[in-house]
């Protein structure tokens, strides 16, 4: 059998989609997204790609690289610390004075300007261009701190620095673009936004329609963007367009006023309500041609995906801050509110909520720190960013509705209440920067892609060459015809059953954490055969078994959260270890389909008592909501 060419491969992938009933249009579009993903991958050195990421290796190698799941301690200080402290002071003071918002109840331009003076917008930009060059592993936990004072200000730092123009220019800009644009972004003279979504293109980025056409020394942009956070006249935005049919990113300077080429579209939006969010209408809008970013490989989606990985970790960091605010609000209220003569904080149900929320906080912290550290090590962070984004946003949603709202009862819906006022803020992260379930499918695909290429693609091509439509393993003629491509897979399967235990010994761990780490290692041992089994079972129709893929993806994600949380708790306080232990027990039970034990409930109550006594250092100093309607 001849060796398959790249063209053969592409045609097989397309054929697979066609055979599974997809339209020509969907085949073309899916191919375009796959290509964009390959191009992002090609930007990283071999050892830093998704295929070398800790999660990928834990699934497909017979040894979990534990050293890559354990975040080392951060250096004691960094020059960016002073900027962070100044920024915290400004936001705290403005909150006290009530001077954070403008007449429209949005974060005011004055507040943004004062933060600019403190260096807030330049945290991720290197000193060479006027910033302070904070490592991402310092920036992300800082966002958590900022979010305990003002989640919207933390969110805007991510809009500006991760998904906005900062990351695209510092990563993909040429020397002239960096020199010209980064100082403006670092000083906050120009604040930024990221315009990708369109009325007809959100999850499906291949449906983008906004075009840019070169006319002499500039591009003319025509089209419409929707839901763009922080987009007002005067911003410098990362604008995703199509140039000659291919996605590209232009850094567009929005004029100070609307004009015949540029209009703002307004609408009421419940979420991120303290930031401006607009639709943008472009009609032959001019952008200088030197503002086109040209990545060494790939196109505009390559650039967009790079920033989104950072944005997803930042989102998890911000969720960790918001959940601290919720927990801090629940404690005084549950001490104050009496039912049947007793404060509700003595009740098992309420204690369980307090303990669960502490567990979610330590787990989101662990994922934030771990993912950011990997980014600083040069990893692409695709899989890790997805796990952090999904867990962070889902935890925040659960915390808001199941834990915070229920504990506050009817008062949760009062104007001025942390829940009632912010409920949309707590839900929207499940949607923006990629809807969670769609991201879960992308996670599965990234994990499975290489294995598919290695073992299933050759089978598909052999089918094609032998003019066979399907492969029936019980038909000896089929097996004989495909023997040369089936043998490597048979060998791989055999290696999964017989290879010895190459796992390095566990580090010194608290006995509770050790049990969880061992559980995760055991779960990873069967992950590869389980994923491969799905690919074997569903073959070309796997793309349509979305629920099965989502479930398989979630299982791997849960194991990752469990492992990272357990490892990160080692050496921390008793309360921290206990919170980590309980959230890991929750995850184990979910994975095993088991009911909680009485002991688990007793441990939850014990942890809640420690937290009620002030033992959870994560919420020390966090503002506690005033108790509303004290009767
Ligand atoms: C508060 C807020 C702020 C935002 N800020 C920005 C911003 O600054 N910049 C920006 O560019 N965008 C921004 N967005 C847009 C956001 O990223 C998109 O809303 C998001 O990506 C989802 O796209 P969509 O709304 O078009 O949903 P759709 O793509 O219409 O999807 C709706 C649902 O359909 C289902 N679905 C879609 N495709 C499939 C499929 N193939 N298989 C199975 N199910 C499917 C999924 O469940 C999905 O969630 C923001 C949105 C909000 C709410």
Number of strands: 10
**What ligands does this structure carry?**
flavin-adenine dinucleotide
State the helicity in percent bands: 55-70%
| N- and C-termini, Cα separation | 82 Å
Major sheet: 4 strands, mixed
Give the structural class: alpha+beta
Mean pLDDT level: 92
- Please work out how many helical segments DSSP would assign: 20
Determine Rg (CA atoms, Å).
26 Å
Estimate the global geometry from the Cα principal axes: globular
Major β-sheet strand ordering:
1-4-5-8
Low-confidence stretches: 1-12
Strand percentage: 5-15%
Strand and helix order: HHHHHHHHHEEEEEEEEHEEHHHHHHHHHH
Characterization of the model:
The chain has 631 residues and is an alpha+beta fold. It has 20 helices and 10 strands. The chain has helices spanning 6-19, 24-43, 54-60, 80-97, 109-118, 136-147, 151-163, 166-172, 175-187, 300-336, 348-376, 382-408, 418-427, 436-465, 476-481, 483-498, 511-538, 546-569, 574-592, 598-612, and strands at 192-195, 211-215, 218-229, 236-243, 246-253, 262-265, 277-288, 292-293, 338-339, 342-343. A hairpin with a 2-residue loop joins strand 9 and strand 10. Helix 6 packs antiparallel against helix 7, helix 6 (136-147) packs parallel to helix 10 and helix 6 packs antiparallel against helix 11 (348-376). The chain is globular. It binds flavin-adenine dinucleotide. Residues 193-197, 202-204, 227-229, 271-272, 277, 428, 431-435, 437-438, 546 line the site of flavin-adenine dinucleotide. Flavin-adenine dinucleotide binds at residues 193-197, 202-204, 227-229, 271-272, 277, 428, 431-435, 437-438, 546.
């Amino acid at each position: 059998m001849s060796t398959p060419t790249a063209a053969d491969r592409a045609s097989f992938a397309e054929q697979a989609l066609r055979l599974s009933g997809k339209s020509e249009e969907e085949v073309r579009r899916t191919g375009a997204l796959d290509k964009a993903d390959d191009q992002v991958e090609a930007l990283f050195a071999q050892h830093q790609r998704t295929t070398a990421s800790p999660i990928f290796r834990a699934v497909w190698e017979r040894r979990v690289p534990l050293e890559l799941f354990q975040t080392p301690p951060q250096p004691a200080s960094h020059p960016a610390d002073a900027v962070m402290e100044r920024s915290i002071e400004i936001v705290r003071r403005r909150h006290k004075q009530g001077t954070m918002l403008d007449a429209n109840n949005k974060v005011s331009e004055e507040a943004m300007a004062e933060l600019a003076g403190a260096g807030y917008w330049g945290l991720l930009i290197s000193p060479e261009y006027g910033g302070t060059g904070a490592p991402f592993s310092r920036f992300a936990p800082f966002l958590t701190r900022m979010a305990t004072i003002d989640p919207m200000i933390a969110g805007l730092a991510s809009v500006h620095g991760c998904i906005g123009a900062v990351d695209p220019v510092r990563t993909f800009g040429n020397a002239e673009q960096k020199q010209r644009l980064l100082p403006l972004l670092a000083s906050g003279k120009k604040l930024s936004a990221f315009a990708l979504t369109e009325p007809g293109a959100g999850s499906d980025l291949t449906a983008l329609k906004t075009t840019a056409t070169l006319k002499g020394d500039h591009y003319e942009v025509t089209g419409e963007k929707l839901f763009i956070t922080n987009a007002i006249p005067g911003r410098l935005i990362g604008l995703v367009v199509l140039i000659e049919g291919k996605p590209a990113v232009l850094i567009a300077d929005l004029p100070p006023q609307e004009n015949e080429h540029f209009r703002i579209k307004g609408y009421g939006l419940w979420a991120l309500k303290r930031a401006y969010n607009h639709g943008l209408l472009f009609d032959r809008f001019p952008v200088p041609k030197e503002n086109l970013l040209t990545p060494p490989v790939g196109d505009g989606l390559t650039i967009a995906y790079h920033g989104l990985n950072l944005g997803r970790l930042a989102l998890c960091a911000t969720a960790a801050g918001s959940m601290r605010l919720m927990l801090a609000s629940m404690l005084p209220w549950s001490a104050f509110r009496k039912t049947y003569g007793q404060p509700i904080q003595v009740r098992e149900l309420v204690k369980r909520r307090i303990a669960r929320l502490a567990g979610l906080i330590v787990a989101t912290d662990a994922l934030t720190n771990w993912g950011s550290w990997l980014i600083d090590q040069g990893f692409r962070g695709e899989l890790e960013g997805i796990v952090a984004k999904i867990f962070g946003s889902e935890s925040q949603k659960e915390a808001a509705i199941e834990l915070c709202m229920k504990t506050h009862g009817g008062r949760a819906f009062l104007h001025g209440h942390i829940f009632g006022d912010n409920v949309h803020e707590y839900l929207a992260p499940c949607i923006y920067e990629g809807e969670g379930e769609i991201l879960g499918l992308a996670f599965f695909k990234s994990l499975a892609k290489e294995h598919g290429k290695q073992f299933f693609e050759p089978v598909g091509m052999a089918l094609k060459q032998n003019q066979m439509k399907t492969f029936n393993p019980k038909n000896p003629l089929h097996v004989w015809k495909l023997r040369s491509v089936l043998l490597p897979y048979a060998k791989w399967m055999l290696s999964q059953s017989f290879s010895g235990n190459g796992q390095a010994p566990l580090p010194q761990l608290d006995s509770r954490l050790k049990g969880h780490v061992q559980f995760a290692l055991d779960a990873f041992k069967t992950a590869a055969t389980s994923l491969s089994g799905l690919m074997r079972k569903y073959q070309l129709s796997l793309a349509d078994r979305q629920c099965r893929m989502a479930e398989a993806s979630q299982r791997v994600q849960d194991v990752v959260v469990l492992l990272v949380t357990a490892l990160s708790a080692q050496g921390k306080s008793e309360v921290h270890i206990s919170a980590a232990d309980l959230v890991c027990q929750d995850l184990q039970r979910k994975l095993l389909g088991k009911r909680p034990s009485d002991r688990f409930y007793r441990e939850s109550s014990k942890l809640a008592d420690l937290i009620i006594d002030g033992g959870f250092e994560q919420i020390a100093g966090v503002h506690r909501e005033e108790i509303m309607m004290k009767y």
